[in-house]
Structure formats: structure tokens, C-alpha cells
Amino acid sequence: PETITVQELANRMAEKGADLVKALFKMGMAVTVNQTIDQDTAELLVTEFGHNMRRVSDSDIELELDTGDDADEDLKPRPPVVTIMGHVDHGKTSLLDALRGTDVTSGEAGGITQHIGAYQVTLKDKSKITFLDTPGHEAFTEMRARGANVTDIVVLVVAADDGLMPQTIEAINHTKAAGVPMIVAINKCDKPEANPQKIRERLLEHEVIVEEMSGDVQDVEVSALKKTGLDDLMDKIQLQAELLELTANPDRNAEGTVVEAKLDKGRGAVATILVNRGTLRVGDVFVVGAESGKVRALIDDKGRQVREAGPSMPVEVLGLSGVPMAGDPLQVVDGEAKAREIAEYRQGVLNEKRTAQAPASLESMFSALK
Ligand code: GDP
Ligand code: MG
């Protein structure tokens, strides 16, 4: 049976080692933080502290930090998070820009468009939709591979004058594999040679059956250039979102995902975080991947300083110890010492992985020389 030291388990749970020792003592076990316990005892402790645990393999205990489930009555509706995918030159960037332009609050004083990897549009009825401003399949699959499933809905852009291309089909496959609902935006419908009906027929070959072909995938004809069909697309996104009944508990310590991160001259390490649940506030102490920090400032997609960010809201976070990776989870924890401890532990794991890989490549270098 696999074992783990009390300290290591405490680090993974973001709890104090001493608290675990106390709990173990109550369970009739006298151990120190440096001693090991078996997996069954570890599991017991994890549940005791109200955490959820995921067993990745028999030999590895992977913990999801502070992921106590939310009570149904605490769940509130949240905006959908949308990713736009499609073949190169079919109009992903143009459509993202056009949709961004429909924001009813964008004219408000002080707002300057900031490209922070995601943005939120407020519709006439005050409801919101979040778009990941990083079109492309790589971001989508990479984030998913890292366990970050931030996308609720995929909008597949297909140019009506071109048809299904390799990356269109790739996008369909990724979306299906992720089990994320898709809306087809048939773009460039302003062009005289546009043939939307041909697109719908070709989609059948890939088992994407749009409503007009009596299927259940919504489709909409748009022109990112002439800005037509955008309201219709927003309506369809909202309809899809309603079917998904997207909710989150806003009244808890924030959990989020890194959408992008960089080292900024003058501002230091900056990460765009998409809040998954809870509310992130200025002054919050957090762990993000193998980095930690304290929120010094929050900046929204219009460049305005905000005090807090709730579920599905993208926000730039200042006050990080270093640059995390896209897809890394962010968790608010109590206490800077604890945050640093967890980050250090994760740095250690990363370094171990790196050094574990090094001898293997050296070996292969030697065997190649033989
Ligand atoms: P991306 O590679 O998918 O991001 O595509 P872009 O947004 O960069 O667009 C590729 C080209 O198609 C650009 O020259 C756009 O101006 C043009 N384009 C995008 N949308 C439309 C549209 O609705 N109608 C027309 N006529 N051209 C468009
Ligand atoms: Mg583009």
C-alpha cells in the first residue's frame, strides 16, 4: 500500500501539518508531521477535513484543494463561457471583435478595450456572456489536457464561401470529445458566393445535424464584416446556456483558472483569471499553480480597476510571486504562510519531475553514442 507523509498530505490539502497531527491523535494515532500514513488513513483525513479527493492512480493521491461541494441553495446562475473555433481565415478574430462591439456598457466613461485573453459582453437585458479571446484549438485542448474545463459552449465558425476545412473538422472532433455543446456560425454570408445550405449539408457528414436539417445543433448565418446576425447568435448562446442551467456559488473563497499569464514591465507577474466559483477580491491571498500571492489589484477587460470578480468574470490579477501557466488553477486560501508553503511544495514537485526526466535523456544520449 502507498504511503504519504503527514506534511505532504497537509500541503496537498492546504491545511496545517499540526492540525492533521491533532486530528490523527483524536483518531488514536500518535504520529509526527514527518511520519508516513497509509492511503486509507489519508483518505479518512481528507474527508475529515471536508475536502474532495480524486485518486489519479493507485500510486498517486491527487487532491483537489478546498473543493467542498456547494449546497443547492447557494448556487446562483452564472454567465456562459464561450470559445470560438474554426479554420484559419474563416473569421474567428473578426467575429470576436464584432461580438465585443455589441457590449452595451462599452461606451461608458473610462473604458478602454484591453486584450486580456477573455472578455465579457453585457446584453440589452443586462445578462452577460463571457468569450475566451484566444481562438484556436491549441488553447482549448491544452487547457483541457491540464484538467481545466472552462468552456461551456463552442461556437464553430465556418466561412460560407469556403466550406469544411481540416481545422473545422478538428474543431468538431475536439468539441465532441469534450462533450461541450456547439453552435455553428456560418460566417461571411455577405459574400455573393456564400452558400450556407452547402455548409449545413456538409456538416451532416460529420454528424453535426443543424436545426434546419431537423437536428438539435443551433446554427446561425452571420457576417462579422457587416455585423449581421450577431443578435441572433447571442440569443442562441443564451438559449443554449439556459438549457445547461449554469450555476456557481458566488459566496465562497474564489476558485479560478489561468487564461493567460505574462511578466509585465512595471506591473510584474500578471495573470488573467476566469473565476469559476466564489468571488475574488482585492487583498485575497491565493495559490495559483506553483505560485502564490495576494491580490494587489483587479483589472477588468475594459481596463478599469474593480474591487471584486464573481463567477464567469475574467479579470487581470496583480500581485503574483511569479508567472503561472495557462490552465493552472487559482485558489484563495487563508494565510500567506500557507499559500507560500503550498506553492513551494508544488515548485518542488515540478523540479522533481524535471530532474526525473533529465537522467533518462542523458541515458539515451549515451546509448546513442555507443
Ligand atoms: P481567423 O483566422 O479565423 O481569425 O479569421 P479573421 O478574422 O482574421 O478573418 C480572415 C479574413 O476574412 C479577413 O480578411 C477578414 O476581413 C475576412 N472576414 C472575416 N469575416 C468576414 C465576413 O463576415 N465577411 C467577409 N466578406 N469577410 C470576412
Ligand atoms: Mg485570428
From TrEMBL:
GTP binds at residues 86-93, 133-137, 187-190. One of its GO terms (cellular component) is cytosol. Keywords: Cytoplasm, GTP-binding, Initiation factor, Nucleotide-binding, Protein biosynthesis. Residues 77-247 form the Tr-type G domain. Transmembrane segments: none annotated. It is found in: Cytoplasm. This is Translation initiation factor IF-2. It comes from Stakelama sediminis. The chain holds residues 320 to 689 of 897 of the full protein.
